Amino acid sequence: MTRLSGYFLPTERQPPGDAEAVSHKLMVRAGLIRQVGAGLWTYLPAGWRAHQKAAQIAREELDAIGAHEMSMPVLQPAEAWKRTDRYKIEELFKLRDRKGAELVLAMTHEEALTVHVAQVVRSYRDLPLILYQIQTKERDEPRPRAGVLRTREFVMKDSYSFDRDLEGLEASYDKHAAAYDRIFDRAGLETYRVEADVGMMGGLGGHEYMAPCAAGEDEVAIGRGYAANVEVARARARPVELAPALDAPEEVSTPGQTTVAQVAGALSVAEGALLKAFPVVVEERGTVLVVVRGDHRVNEVKLGKALGAPFRSAHSEEIARSIGPPGFIGPVGADVEILLDEGVGEGSYVAGANRPETHLRGVVPGRDFAAQRADVRRVEAGDLVDGGEIRIEPAIELAHIFKLGTRYTEPLAATYLDEQGSEQLVWMGSYGIGPARVCAAAIEQYADEQGISWPRSLAPFDVELVGRGRPGTDEHALAERLYDELRSAGLDVLYDDRDAGPGEKFTDAELLGCPLRLTVGRRTLAAGEVEVQVRRGREARSAPLDGTAEAVAKLWRTLP
RNA sequence: CGGGGCGUGGCGCAGCCUGGUAGCGCGCGGCCUUUGGGUGGCCGAAGUCGCCGGUUCAAAUCCGGCCGCCCCGACCA
Fold this sequence. Notes:
This protein is of the alpha+beta class.
């Protein structure tokens, strides 16, 4: 029974003054969420309905691959987190109970579940297993943002697979990938599965499911048959016009010209005809000079992998001491390890001379300096993958799936006995979806001037019924009757029975964004049919007065 | 953590520079009006001006400290 007159749906004409993202503004304006603190949000009834629809889609598809739902506590003893070496993570909330015992608020549940599996699983006969929950996660985010997109507390559908070996893990992983494809297809979103960085989870690799939209915090490189997070994307650089070769590097005076743009301008060459030097200090290794093409940027995730150790950019005193005057450094004659990006093609480049106010031209990698090669640059729009150009779009990370391998089962001693009776480590995967982000992404992707336009699978209600006319009138009686009939036909109906003007009701309905809006008033009686608006596109339709509910239910099933 | 900004009825904002009665729009309550795109009118309720301290006869306003929130960056399963 959802009559708007008695519902808790506080719509606002104006968005919060500090909101930027479309989904943030609209979720607040439409009465779906309210803020409690930084990164802490209450879901009001309609918002929670949408969230629950996203969660339910995930639940159904997980159940369909043989996963079993369960529930674990958020508040946990710190001990297992110490064993997996994750107690040190800054985002992990840590606290003590009255006895002084160390506890954490779980940011994910690998530890808790693996402890159980370690206790319960004895034999290869107990595997494989896929277990999941839909439950709260806590993370002390350095910067919560954009409404519900990045919060300190949020719900996650987190599932975990346990297999006897890598082959089993691959199979469980593939099941999840297929289930996730179905989930996002059902959610009505445009998404890409992309190669991803594994970050703090560790393990053998993973994929993210990304939904392109303006508010996204990540960037995705998308090409024909290719999609990857920019953090890990690899592509072939578009060629650049280089200066003619010289027999040997030649000094040119470049007073005060410390940026690629300045030097390229002064020498009338393309920025890509320069070599850009990026000095870093690598733990237990010292300074390394990373060199990329002048029009390229260093990708720190890729660089970290190439270096195989933590690093930071060098301070200017360190640069001056170990390489040359900042702004004029280059690989030629630099007495440090040099890492040359693979995007630097053969030919003759301009580079810093390691002398004040001076650059060199005619620098040929390999001839004039020796370097290790690695792919450490950020891909750029227009780079080529399989002959096709890529584009780069901002996107929301909706889900992340990981092949964890034995990253957690080893420290937590989750083992089983194989057919030969020998003890083996369990192979593990973990898989997360954020229903809140699914909802926010849907809003971001489909909102228009009037407000939200939900995919039918996520909408808090299938139909909003706008009643005109006061109690006692024929049109009011008709609206009441249709409300009952629509619900009997299996539709979720929000009935706007408020004593309010038509403009207010229509505006609120379009702000909330249910896929269909029905209007019942005097015109309905006169015309003998009910006016129906399809929210996506705001297209006007009609339904007969006889059998309205069936006609509306049928129409609903055809919607995106 | 670095940079920038904001905190004044439920929401959005002005007032602060130059100290002296706390204001506007929307919303809210009552009456009338209107009833297919936020109708119009009259009346009314509602604010410790984020908190603490200081200066002053007097502080929303000036000074100091703290807290909260937002944005950019860093960071981020």
